[in-house]
Amino acid sequence: MAARPSKSSYYGKKKYNFKDSRNQLQPDMKGFLCTCNYGEKDCQKEAINLLREYSEEKDKSSEDISSTVEESTDIMDSLDTELESLSKKDNADWKKFNPSVTGVGNCIFISTTVEDPCDLMYKILEDIERTKVQKTKFLLRMLPILITCKANLISIKSVCTNLLSKYFSTEPTTFAIMFNHRYNNSVRRDEVIKELANQVVSFGQHTVDLSGGAKMTIIVEVVKSVCCLSVVRDYGRFCKFNLLSVCGRPEKRTADGENGDGEKTSSPKVKKQEENDQVKENREEENTKSKPEEEVNETSEL
Question: What is the mean pLDDT of the segment spanning 292-299?
Fold first, then answer.
């Protein structure tokens, strides 16, 4: 009896791998590095929706200014131009924020075509700090990344030469360097920090501040074979860019605790102890009622 043909030989092609079609985190990219504790897909959706929400507000303000300057004379021409602008906007929004695979669990990178990711991130953080409204449930931290490079000291050194000169070539300021690595032990923390600190000091009389109140912070996030670099301000003020901490919410939350019902969240052991205490109190009341009236009167006088 002939062997049963496999699916690949039957269809003539190998099974398509959808993971190969997704964008991979690689050098020469900019965007946002997002982390979560669980629910990567939900975290990715929340990050993209949040970025689109605040980027659209910025686009609307610029469109209102341009609409007041330009006035159309013909109705048909105005409709054609409006449809054309809408189609261009849809295509631009589709490419503005794209998820990229990092190869690390609970770590997502959102690539962007926005000119400066830091400006958009400051807008989100300042609004959350002002309103104290929780915008995300799964997304914890969102770091704006200005550029990515290969994860080795030579590439990091060459990229930071141009990057740091934009932020530290003016008046003296305080700075700190935050280094973190995931699935990479070849990049030495001490070597990177020493090299970047020497570059910053060479630009002017800048001082290191490790107390958490540094005005400028250099972020170095090594993710496998790619290094994500950025320079941000108010890193301590915005709670290391933790969105839940900025709005004053704790990171660890339970499903019952989010609803605000404190009685429902009590454990069975606590409930059982409360029932035992209630039974004990009822027995004591019954004993006092069963005592003679004389004894009760004597105790009341004391």
Answer: 41
What the block records as the tokens of 260 is 């605000």
Q: What is the pLDDT of residues 52-85, one digit of tens each?
A: 999 987 555 444 444 444 444 466 666 666 656 5
Query: Rounded to 5 degrees, what angle do the CA atoms 91, 95, 96 make?
Result: 110
CA distance 21 to 211: 44
The answer to whether 255 and 271 are in contact (CB under 8 A) is no
Q: Residue 111 has which token pair?
A: 């690539």
Helix, strand, or coil here: 227? strand
Give, in order, the Cα–Cα distances in Å from 288 to each of 18, 94, 277.
Answer: 76, 77, 17
CA atoms within 13 A on the CB side of 136: 33
Q: Are strands 226-233 and 216-223 parallel, antiparallel or unpaired?
A: antiparallel
| Degrees, nearest 5: CA angle 202-205-208 | 90
Whether the CB-CB separation of 176 and 217 falls below 8 Å is answered with yes
Largest CA distance in the chain: 105
